[in-house]
Write a structure and sequence with these properties.
alpha/beta, 26% strand, globular, 340 residues, nine-stranded mixed beta sheet
Length: 340
């Protein structure tokens, strides 16, 4: 770990995932077989926060979010305690249950989510003691899935953007993550926050919704030039330091100051070894944040982030596949990388 001592705050969605492994995703009225059911942590705070602690148990990581007064919250907070995730910033809703997602996961790695927003919909700046923050990086997600944060603000565009601006005024670097939501207005809810973000981390679909460019060609190959153009648009919208975009086949980083574009292919994990991909994006995000926190160069960040995401594929839930830094690096050495 670097000489930094104040660590990372991970704020936003706290969710319980009910992961059901199915043999197919059926058409309406048809049946799919469920081979296993398990309960696991989910959401930006739970996944990214715990992943960071698994990567480096000595790294100070704090959780900020909102849960209901129910046994699901007890389970989630118990997991935070188990992995050493500081949770005094987690508040309780008086009216809403803890957020949940029913995750339908196929052996190939694809998954579909059925989500109940619950207490996350209430989570707002009023739940955060901004003046007490002493972290180096304040990471929050997911935009599009935090109703109060996504609400309009007459001056900043969204409540989230106002919050990020206030955090930056305290000398803290800000970072955002996004969720894939086919029903949301990406531009109106994401663009305002870019102006007050030091780092923006999201996947290829979420990001290209901002640029109206295709992420893939007719053969299903990622269009690297469109990814780069999207990152340049995001930089023009105000991201101050780095933009990181990830997809199944590669990770991309754009350094705003130097305009340097870096691409690193994903590890080539055999399909037979993949047990699921729930939380793979959060694992990539955790690896990215860890690299940024420690001052690594862009290629090193992407290599580690992709290896973190690859580890996630070895477990059906969102956190069990993650390992400590040294083991993640061994995974990177074991498997070759894809060609894109």
């Amino acid at each position: 770990m670097s000489n930094n001592s104040n660590g990372i705050v991970v704020a936003g969605n706290i969710i319980v995932d009910i992961v059901k492994t199915v043999d197919c995703y059926p058409e309406i009225g048809m049946l799919a077989n469920v081979s296993s059911v398990s309960r696991a942590v989910g959401g930006c705070v739970s996944n990214t926060g715990i992943d960071l602690k698994k990567i480096d148990p000595s790294l100070p990581v704090s959780a900020i979010g909102k849960v209901g007064k129910d046994d699901v919250a007890d389970f989630l907070l118990g997991q935070f305690d188990k992995y050493g995730l500081e949770r005094s910033g987690v508040t309780l809703s008086k009216t809403q249950p803890t957020s949940f997602s029913d995750v339908m996961s196929m052996p190939s790695g694809e998954r579909t989510f059925f989500h109940g927003r619950g207490a996350n919909a209430e989570f707002s700046p009023a739940d955060i003691d901004i003046d007490s923050l002493s972290c180096d990086i304040f990471h929050i997600g997911y935009i599009l899935l935090l109703d109060a944060m996504d609400a309009k603000d007459s001056e900043y565009g969204t409540v989230m953007a106002r919050l990020l601006a206030e955090v930056q005024k305290r000398g803290i670097k800000t970072s955002i993550d996004v969720v894939s939501d086919s029903s949301s207005d990406y531009k109106s809810k994401i663009l305002p926050s870019l102006k007050y973000s030091n780092y923006a981390i999201m996947n290829e679909i979420e990001s290209t919704m901002l640029s109206d460019l295709d992420a893939y060609d007719e053969n299903g190959n990622v269009i690297t030039e469109n990814i780069r153009k999207t990152m340049e648009l995001m930089a023009a919208a105000g991201v101050k330091d780095k933009i990181v975009i990830h997809c199944k086949d590669a990770g991309f980083c754009y350094d705003v100051a130097t305009k340097r574009f870096t691409c690193v292919p994903s590890l080539n994990i055999p399909k037979g070894e993949i047990k699921g991909s729930v939380g793979a994006g959060d694992a990539f995000c955790a690896g990215t944040l860890y690299g940024i926190y420690n001052g690594w160069d862009d290629e090193e960040i992407l290599k580690f982030a992709s290896a973190s995401a690859a580890c996630n594929l070895f477990a059906e839930n969102s956190i069990d596949g993650l390992r400590e830094k040294a083991e993640i690096e061994k995974i990177a050495e074991k498997y070759g990388r894809k060609e894109i």
